[in-house]
Design goal:
This protein is of the alpha+beta class. It has a 6-stranded antiparallel beta sheet with strand order 1-2-3-6-5-4, sandwiched between helices. About 0% of the residues have low confidence. The protein is built from 9 helices and 6 strands.
Length: about 240
């Protein structure tokens, strides 16, 4: 099985883990665990599928939907023509909103849903992390400082960091900087992107925390940059940086 075949199979894997015991996916899942590139793709795919499901589940079902469907199938009396429910302007408008929402989510470039997942997957590959340069070392020193709190304005010069050797990776065709820093003996991974590169990625200036098993992620924006910090040791250590 090559990666293209594995991707074809894994596209049908439900993000809630309900297919974990299905033999149909076993070989493809094993390949994703052993192939870092496929593993990153699968993590992003699962995150996007979960985001789509959550968005669609949030669309409220009209309270009178059942009655409207039944009414549409009734034979009209006295020759009076009643417009079918699906052909009524109000229902067409509601259906149009739902379709546009679904289409918008489906065509959404996965930025808001997948950036933290991208960081989460990359943080697992700690052996690949590196970077050097004066600018990188200075920012790392700031992040290492116990007085630095997540969410405060950091001295980030993206262009200088990029040009002087800070580790750079690519997300959706855009450069993202990655630095590792250490607090109280615990390593963290900071990912920095230019906010202008991801205009649809709506984050607050206050870090938002989320748990991914034993891993925790904090994400926020300082208006110029989108910043994600990953802790592979859980929420408690990440909360200590707030």
């Amino acid at each position: 099985m090559n990666n293209a075949e594995a991707k074809f199979i894994l596209q049908g894997y439900r993000p809630n883990g309900a297919d974990a015991g299905d033999a149909t996916f076993s070989a493809a899942l094993a390949q994703a665990q052993n192939d870092p590139a496929l593993g990153r793709w699968f993590a992003q795919q699962q995150a996007f599928d979960a985001a789509v499901g959550a968005k669609l589940a949030a669309v409220p079902v009209p309270a009178d939907l059942r009655a409207a469907i039944l009414a549409g199938g009734r034979v009209t009396t006295a020759g009076t023509a009643h417009r079918a429910w699906w052909n009524r302007p109000a229902w067409m408008a509601a259906a149009g909103v739902a379709i546009l929402l679904a289409a918008g989510v489906a065509l959404w470039p996965k930025q808001a849903a997948a950036f933290s997942d991208f960081a989460f997957a990359d943080a697992k590959l700690s052996a690949m992390h590196g970077g050097h340069g004066h600018e990188s070392n200075e920012l790392q020193a700031v992040l290492n400082d116990p007085a630095t709190r997540l969410g405060q304005k950091l001295p980030i010069n993206f262009a200088n960091l990029h040009e002087t050797g800070c580790r750079t990776i690519t997300f959706k065709g855009r450069d993202v900087l990655e630095l590792c820093f250490k607090r109280n003996g615990v390593w963290f991974h900071a990912y920095i992107a230019r906010a202008a590169d991801f205009p649809r990625l709506a984050l607050n200036s206050t870090p938002a925390l989320e748990d991914r098993g034993s891993t925790a992620i904090a994400s926020w924006t300082d208006h110029d940059h989108v910043i994600v910090v990953v802790s592979k040791t859980g929420r408690k250590n990440l909360e200590a940086l707030l």
